[in-house]
Amino acid sequence: MLALAVALVAAGGLGGAVLYNTTGRRSAVLALAHNVTAGQSISAADLVIAHISLDPSLQPVGAASLENVVGMRATTDLMQGQFLTTTDVTRSSLVQAGQQVIGLPAKDSQLPAAALQPGNQVMVVSTGTSSAGGSGGGSTSGGSVLPPVGSQIAATVVTVGAADNDGTTVVDVAVPSAQAPQLAVLAASGGFAVVFAPRAAAEMALFAIVGGHGAPGATVTALAMLHAWPLQSGGRVLLAECDPDGVILSGALEGRLDASRGLGQLGVADRQGQLAQTLMTQLTDVSPGGTADRLLLPGVSDPAQYSGLAYVWESLANLLAALEGQGVDVLVDLGRSGAAGPSAVLARRADAVLVVARSTLRSLTTTHPRIAALRADLNAHGRGADTLGLVLVEEGPYKAADVSAQLGSPVLGLLPYAPAVAGVLSDGGNTHDRRFVRSPLLGHPHRG
After folding, report:
1. Same domain (yes/no): 258, 373
2. What is the span of the domain harbouring residue 77?
3. Is the pLDDT of residue 429 over 80?
4. DSSP line for 124-139
């Protein structure tokens, strides 16, 4: 759940969501002004000061430590908007005990198109072609046998030099001492290529969002997350509207999209064994620059279509879960009722299930049995009740700590009560208006 909480803050909080602590007080902490890759030295320009309510057990770095943090190295990829914790930075060397540093003189064609940074995890692959024009897999370099073609050595980038006059860049990498001689032979031959190590599927996530009465509810929360989701290089985020009421097509999209496109087309496709291929053709690119990294699967245009999808949900859940391993974060809008019935499998497969509620008596009264039913279902058929969390819209008098105690689930995020901005997200409107862009509902940590 910690990873989810970080994601909520990084996504502009669910447009400005904050983590809650038992005191309810806000503290000045350090957050990221933009993405920082693992191993990169952190500068003052990389950081902003955010004022948020935060559980001290997460070990946030206070704003007073700014000067101490500058010059430290990121231990993992850090995303814009993410608050900084003490485990995110270190002064320790990239070269660990039992490792040696080998210099790789490489041309541009031997390196990834994206610039390498200290701390990047890479694979050095034997290509079988040497600078002398020989071939690997048994050929020699100075009397040493080259590694077989296609063999790989995992390494950590330590430093990246400037390109010299002939276009050669020396990349220093750290490898286990036992593999250093083999890599040195490969480096001398020139018969290698450097590629980024594959990311673990666990770095991506599947979130199910369940709503209550009134906006901002599941759909507004999901759209805010889609709008502000932090993306790493090559990453994408997909919002699948699986709400039985299907409001995005006629609401946020203002009817601009053909109603024949979206979730409703997947029933026939699944029966024909073409669900995966058809899903990709039903997505709409909603990224501001048309970069296809923020994608939307619109829901049904007629609630009557929903019953025809009864046998699709299991296959769709499997497909959406598989997208996690392809660099895609998936958000599933289940609306008020989509977490029950045949589509409940989407919540059961989720890494986290977010229930959106207002801090009013009416909303919390109706949320209580919903939470209880979800908890029982996730324990019996899903990934457990510990995947369940609350997003609280601050309209009423009840505090997060009281709500969490009464409902038995943690409050992971707080949303401001902003009906005008929520109306733009749910019903459409001018998303370029300054008041919309700067709304706390879509806000990011700001400079103090």
Report:
1. yes
2. 17-90
3. no
4. EEE-SB-TTS-BSSS-
Cβ burial 387-418 (10 Å sphere, 16+ → b, else e) = bbbbbbbbbbebbbeebbeebebbbbbbbbbb
pTM: 0.55
Residues 188 and 206 in one domain: no
Burial class (CB in 10 A: 0-12, 13-18, 19+), 330: buried
Tokens standing for residue 156: 């950590």
Domain-located, residue 308:
yes
Residues 210-253: pLDDT tens digits? 987 654 578 888 887 887 787 777 788 999 999 877 655 444 44
User: What is the pLDDT confidence band of residue 202, given thresholds at 50, 70 and 90?
Assistant: very low
Is residue 352 domain-resident?
yes
Task: Give the other-Cβ count within 10 Å of 258's Cβ.
Answer: 10
Same domain for 412 and 353: yes
Distance CA 366, CA 141 (A): 73
- Cis check for the bond before 342: say yes or no (omega within 30 of 0): no
* Domain at 84, CATH number: 3.90.1210.10
Residue 329: which CATH number? 3.40.50.300
The secondary structure of residue 78, as a DSSP letter, is B
What confidence score (pLDDT) does residue 388 get? 93
User: What's the CA gap between 262 and 417, in Å, rounded?
Assistant: 30
Structurally, the chain folds into a number of domains equal to 3
Token pair recorded at residue 301: 């245009």
DSSP run (H or E) holding 414:
strand 411-416
Do 209 and 303 lie in one domain? The reply is yes
Q: What is the pLDDT of residue 12?
A: 38
Distance CA 381, CA 145 (A): 55
